[in-house]
Amino acid sequence: MLRLIGILLTIAAAIGAAIVTWPQFFRLEQTFPIAQLVSLRPMLAIGFAGLALIGLLFCLSRRTRGFGAGIAMVAVAACVANVAIVAVRGLGDAELPEPTADSIRVMTWNTAGPATDVDAVVKTAIAMDVDIVALPETNDDTGEAIAVAMRERGNPMWVHEENYQGWDATYTTLLISPELGDYAVVESESAGTSNTSIVPSVVAMPVEGDGPIVVAVHAVAPRQNHMDDWRADLRWVADQCASANVIMAGDFNATVDHMDRLGTDGGTLGRCHDAAGSTGNGGVGTWDTAWPAILGAPIDHVMATDAWTATGSVVVTSLDGSGGDHRPVIVQLEPSR
Length: 337
Prior knowledge:
Blueprint: H1 2-21, H2 23-26, H3 34-38, H4 41-58, H5 65-89, E1 104-108, H6 118-127, E2 132-136, H7 140-152, E3 158-163, E4 171-176, E5 183-185, E6 202-206, E7 213-218, H8 227-240, E8 246-251, E9 273-274, H9 275-278, E10 300-304, E11 308-315, E12 329-335
């Protein structure tokens, strides 16, 4: 009887490990609590390593040796699989290539409202010579202060914003360099029918029609009581990348695992491709800054359609003490030839 129970527990452990390691196969990547677990693959790997040790302890007893060995093998396989997935997506590349005449540099940083110092945003944007800055949880006054400070230092920016008239999290600000031309924000409804649901995103269209559509993204976090809103937000964001020339950046509150069934024409999300994943940083955590980047969740992204080729990316870890809980992500894009 004990042997049968051990076999059943081992089978259950194997199924559970498979589900949290590759939930897309089971179509559970957007289901609570699987969505939350898979966003932290490094933590999963550590958990499976601990489970493997427990299995080995069971091996010390003759009566439970078979059960312990089975659990240990399942846990080791799951640990290796999760580590391999993170490694393949990229564990960090800290440099951008030299910009060309046609380069566009895009930065996203969820500032957590007043938690992040304005000067830190300005210095980072200028140092990285960015052309587009997506700032979720940044209100219009702060966005204008950043733009004014950048203008005074020789990097002017047009300011666009969307808000749901609440605290800082209900604002999203988008800065675009005048060198990219004139842009106008597409009107949206605070009810969320033509925008993300609980926190807003910004869709900016080129006035002359020859530049990329730029989307500053902020999807709601996948808390248990907001799972439907989160899934709807991801579908809405995917729909924004239906055109041929789109650049999106922001806090997606989702990893590429959650986007598995939302890509079209080979894209990661809609027709857009994740830039960090193609340039060696797809496994680097952008949240939470309280943890080492290697243990975090890569939920902040810069994405673009096939009109653009990502040639480099950086997840900035040197500003983890600046107050916010997200890391800035900067990507260099070149027009595809």
